Amino acid sequence: MKQGLIHIYTGTGKGKTTTSVGLAVRALSHNFKVCFCNFNKNPEKYGITELNTLEKLGATVMPLTQEHPRFNKAISIDEHKAITAAGFDKIKNYIQENECDLLVMDEINISIRDNFLPEDELLQFLKDKPDSLEVVLTGRGATEKMMEIADYVSIIDAHKHPFEQGISSREGIEY
Length: 175
What we know:
The protein is built from 6 helices and 6 strands.
């Protein structure tokens, strides 16, 4: 690719991470070098099947933070901020030291929304990224500034979900 663009998948609906995983699989099938990072999730909680699959297909997978402090009270907000900052530094170092065609930062929009990572730091990273690097940012609450800098913005809104009818998350579908 000559020009890497910026994608945002945001909104209240299901499918933001799933969309980014699908894009990563497509990129891998074209021999792109893919780095898939996640924030604000504990991938081991529900199984890390899609992350394992991405690794098997050749992606570099970096789980950078654990669950959001709202869902895991054992993690303080200050601790989560520090872990998020360290994870973001790891991404910046990885991009400087490795060839990468597609970078997915899953749930990073939440890190900006909830002030775990300063928005200006992410905006500067996106402005300074290698020209050929395609970047995907997922998670609820993408800010106006983030959407302004992006080339693709998909807002995935929930209009109906089985959870509202008492149907729990299903293995292989929601996780």
